Fold this protein.
Amino acid sequence: LLAAVLVVPAALPPAGAGSVLRDNRKAPDPPLPTGARARLEAVEPGGGEPIFSLSYSPDGRTLAASGYEPVIRLWDMAASKERRQLRGHAGAIRWDHAGTVRCVAFSPDGRLLASAGSDRKLRLWDVAAGKELWATQAHRFGLTAAAFSPDGKVLATAGGIFDPAVKLWDVATGKELRASSQGEAQDGAACVAFSPDGKTLAYGTVSGLLCTMEADTGKDLLQVSAHRKGVNAVQYSPDGPLLATAGGDRTMRLWDPARGTEVRKLSGHDGPLHALAFSRDGKILASGGADRAVVLWEVLTGHEVRRLEGHQEDVKALAFAPDGRTLASGGTDGVIFLWDPAGVARVPSAAELEALWADLAGADAPRAYRAVCALAAAPNQAVGLLARHLKPAPPEQAARVARLIAGLDSDRFEVRKKATEDLRKIGLLAEPALERALSRHPTPEARQRMEALLQELRRADGPPELLRIVRAVQVLEQAATPEAQRLLREWAAGAPDERLTQEAKEALRRLAKASASPATSR
Amino acid sequence: MSTRRLSIVLLGLGCLAGSPTAAAPPRDGDVADALALAARIDARIVARWPRGDFRPAPAADDAEFLRRVWLDVAGRIPPAYRARDFLEDPAPDKRRRVVEELLCGPDYVTHFTNVWADFLLAPSGGPRVDIPGPLHAWLARRVRDNAGYDRIVRELLASPLAPGWPAPEEGEESSPAAFYDAQGPVPEKLAAATARLFLGLSLECAQCHDHPFAPWKRRQFWELAAFFADTAAERRGGRPGAGENAGLCALEIPDTGQTVRPRFPGGNAPRWRPGDGPRAVLAGWVAAPDNPFFARAAVNRLWAHFFGTELVDEIDAAGEPAADGLRDLLDDLAREFTAHGFDVKFLIRAVTASHTYQRSSRLTHPAQADPRLCARMAVRGLSPEQLAASLIRAAGCREERMPRPGAVGRDPVAGTPREQFRAGLRGQANRVDSQTSVLQALLAMNGALTAKAVGLVYGETVTGAAAARGIDTAGRIEQLFLAALSRKPRPEEVARLARYVDAGGPRRDVREALADVFWALLNSSEFMLNH
């Protein structure tokens, strides 16, 4: 118990670290569950009411929380205490709890906060001033979700079970820009998310569809029967190559957003899912639902890597802190937990390092995750170890993959057969090259062949080299020290179509983006 | 339309295919047995051919066989690249290998789930009905796990029926109870359905009077019906396990005042043990290896799936002269099916490996026209699912990308093109007989899906063939043929069509001309039929 409270990294509350905020209660604080750094619980008034939504400010200093009461609470992460309450949502809608605030979302610049209420109102707040900028009756019935576009100029809302439209709003004026075109034809939207480039809006419906539309025109792009029950949460991975949905059918699914094909199904929860969140590097997905557990998944393999248990009731909201070092979860038990997703307390010894290197390539995903976190927590040793073992990709392999892909469209059966078999062995390491070949007008037949192969490779567990590459980059990105970034740059200079090169480039891009935003002010 | 049925179809078997299918490779002994059975099928068929001026149709070529076996086993045509690979593969055992690949694949699960569901739900000769989700889920799991046919029928007949039972499987409601709703949960209907579907016996007329020419008495019918005496009450929400005192089950023959107790159609009285439910006792008898009717009815049905007509009309009509040799074949198939654990895949392996199945459908001698001779392959229409799935595949459509007109309600996929397509075909006869249904053809001619299939927007086949680099006009035409007809074009076809395409058709546009060619291919009988 004591240890759990004392494992507090520098990032978290300096004073009263790990303290539990239950000011006005006489009962002794319950112990923190394993992996949790802190518990936030509003006490007065209406404390303990269910939490439905959490949103971190981009600088990571504030966590906005909303739920059953018509109040938005802004928690000061530095002091671990409530800083401000935003009040405005109210309502007398008989069939829903008066004034429930179903969703809160910080704008990308952190100055604004949007909130969606069961009082049918979409409200925009000035965070610093604590005052409402505008409010509009957005849908016919209570709203279920709201999301900012990446440029912060547009808000998207979902109207829930009785209102089929997804609507887009001008942040500056509060005026409606457009609604999803299908209007009456479509069943209720439960959740919305913008793609990272802002061009596409994805939404999930109460009957299990995953849809995407062009944000600028409202044109429908994709519609997939995604879950056997409602889609309760939808999220793009940070770079946008994947779309994740969490459903009432106890599963999460990963999708190729361009083609609408299912990439993976993640199952392991024992109840409907309510919330999901991608880590900043897109390598980890967190999920929560009616079985009260917060589960971390490795996106690459689809395996569960860690389980965080402490909520007494359904987990309804999840949010990763912008620095990726904290995961906040909120539940219908009225409690917000701040978790340490890594859960590492100790720097590995020199002897342990080599074992960790081996773990990175292993099929045992939880073990590999512990290795990633352990290495990231010891950046100096990790950079040395990884630099020693993993060299930038040489050009020969890329040339071979290119030859094999050309062989897929050969006139000769034997060549096609051999090329398919060899590419199958190379596995997902050939993914970037295959994707590129697909974009270069292949014959319909070659396209089918490549897509079938890609789908097969994505469903299979990656080859050990692939696992190692992705996880090694994950270590360096998580460590993010200058030395780690130097090694990433070395890898990024390898042969262009190689997986290591691409992974390293993407990691550097994310790190650059993070350092440009206010998130890294600490 | 059932939610689950289509969601499975649309996901390309999202769930079922996503998880590794439980399809284990067959044991060597099973394969050898299947090949031996195939040889006996051929021998028995050949033995029935007339002497003198008669010759059978030639063997089907690779393209004809491939398309047929994909449609029969996987329920849709092959992708173009699989067709080309098969045609160019020099391996001598490639026909057997493709069957094995299909039996392990997700399309087999989709297709045979539909096949069994239509079998269970459609009243004989009646209109198609939608498959309720839990029943579809239950069947799909059984097909995926390759459960023996006896186990499927036993579970179906013995399943708890009260709402909420049995417990969900893999988090999904899964229950055969809808079978009882579809048949109408009254004893006489369930008795007639049990006899017809699982025993191949038409007992319906014995419901009111003794059978005119078969040895079935009215009393026997009602004794069978008595097994279902409490079924309706149980389905309405009685507790699971209602009718525990199965031995006390009784039913009155209408308007006679006569009360009968459950008895098997053969005349034996069940031996009741405490705790036995009446349906479970009946299920044990129906699906027993020594039941003379059970396996025969099943293989008769499966034969019809592959050849268009059943081997014999009546399972129990002994001494029907025209069917003499066929009755021996039926017995042989039934014996092997039983000996191999009622494994449907075993039977599929045997049938598809036979020369009888691998014969061309081209009529080369007038005497081949008699379907009972099996001297050529019957030409069959496609089921709505086969046609829709094949059309979507041929056109290279991503159906989830297509816009969705019309109201949806709670059904997540109603209103998708495939659903509309199916809706247009609903209410038709469930079994598609030797002629392509006119309605199917009309729908394909006018249907929105087909229009979109050839449209340049949605189909990747035409756009891809038009945009592909490094191939000439003949190559583009070959792409269209492989996609739609699973074969390469003949030289004269290439010559004629290349002229048209190069000239750009009436609109002087190569892409439009390719779309015209593709449209013509999709509307040809070669595409519309399983031949």
Observations:
- The longest strand of chain B covers residues 251-253.
- Chain B touches chain A through 51 residues (CB under 8 Å).
